[in-house]
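Data availability (excerpt). All sequences and predicted token strings are deposited with the supplementary files. A representative entry, SAM-dependent MTase RsmB/NOP-type domain-containing protein, is shown inline so that the format can be inspected without opening the archive.
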Amino acid sequence: MSLYHEAASILDETRAKKCSIKSLVYTTKKGKEWKSDPKALFALSTEAAKWSEVLAEVVGRSGVLGVERTLSPTLALVLTYDLFLSKRGIALPASHGLNAAVSKHKARLSAELTKARLRRGCATIDELRVKINGGSVLSDGKEGQRKVPRHPRWVRINTLKTTLEEQLAGQFAQWQSVPTLREVVQAASSREQVYHVDEHIPNLIAIPSGADITTSVAYRTGDLILQDKASCFPAYLLDPQAGKGDVIDACAAPGNKTTHLAAVLAESNARRETDNAQGGKIIACEKDAARSETLEKMIKLAGAAEVVTVKAKQDFTKLPPTARVAANITALLLDPSCSGSGMVGRDEDSGITVHLPSTTPDVPTVRGKKRKRPAATASAALQPSAAPPPAVSTTEEELPPDSADDTAEKLTARLANLAAFQLRLLEHAMAFPAARKIVYSTCSIHPEENEHVVVAALRSEVAREMGWRVLRRSEQVVGMREWHLRGQRDEVAAAVGFEVDGETKGLEVDVKEVSEACLRCDKHGEDGTMGFFVVGFVRDVGETLASNGNGGVGLVSGDGESYDDTNGDDESWEGFAD
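Structure token line:
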């Protein structure tokens, strides 16, 4: 039946391109090219994705994929979802090949589902359903009842095209303003029209999770952008200023952070009183061709094309810091590939994580004995100046999100690879001679990708040579300075204790200063955000920078000659693309 094959293709594309299920069903195809009913297709794809962490574990441990060669991992997910979790079961005759391929393993799959449920501390499927949906069982123990979800829907007002005041008087004119986020969260299940203006990020509001603005004119024209609050931290913390050089967004697709950078820069331009103080552009790098297309569409829709230049198929790590185009780069935003462990599965925010089952059952060969851990750890991979392992890649497709079948050993090795790549990206950014500020972020909850990478970067040779340090809490923009969740001090301390050849080496790190400089967001916390980490780096370059007379900043050589890219062309850049 086409429904299951089409749902599987939706999940494959969502995983590969990091795009939303809704956009694939209703925008890309516009509901016309699907053989299945778009509403049924969207519902099945969304629910299967939501349950994929559990179902990947169930299917993977059952060994079904090793027997049924006609089933792909995503096809097995959607069929298993309907078999056990939908009201009507598999919408195919019992004699149909797809139905039979799964149903004949029902006993084994059911046993694995029971084990997966018990491992999550849930007594019933209804209790597990509540947990999957982002709630928890009520204190009175009643099953199947959902606690109010903790995640509102975050809406960024795109100031490139409109203002907060215009939208509150227009799109949200009939809505009620409430003073606390809790009131928005409590209204989520009733779809009450209330909003809360965020106190940390300008031009950001929270609305109930049940509210749908995707059909509104304001959303379709790019006036409103769905973006998690935590995802707004990097651009706001970087705080690009007009007349102070250009910005590189090193890992730009799908474009939310890029367009936010453009809005912040445009607001800075608007505050300038004289034209010669204005200026600055954003250069958005994206290695993957398909994601580059998504990025360009997003930038055009958001009205950011005048300030953002997209360099499609451009691998940032292959752009030499000494390149002519880099002479005016004073700020960099790095949001690299990561484990995605902080994602909360909000499809509309393109934050859904599709977990895939293993094609071979993950069954321990020896029971009752501890497994040996690999010698290599994420911490060991973060030795300054150490070459990254060959497995490190610069593409997200080769660095998939956390999977339910990850063992502790697999996760440790995978985090080591990710952290090595993230450190290499940071060291590359620190080598840009005119750079004065870098913001690094991940949607990960693992310290191996966060505090450990920060300390390793500070202790790297390039950081010492160029004079990089963390952007102290007292130096951060007011909303970020007031954010209450900071870095994990014990993890910073553990990272500072790294040894090279048996002895401690590198830059002395102030554990308190570094941990306070880092910002964290809790996954499933009371702040209504996904799990996230962000930190800023700065260097005091003093007189090594000078105005190039075009509203930017150029690197000044020893003989006083200033280099800039004002009159250059794109040919030098294109030479670095794959």
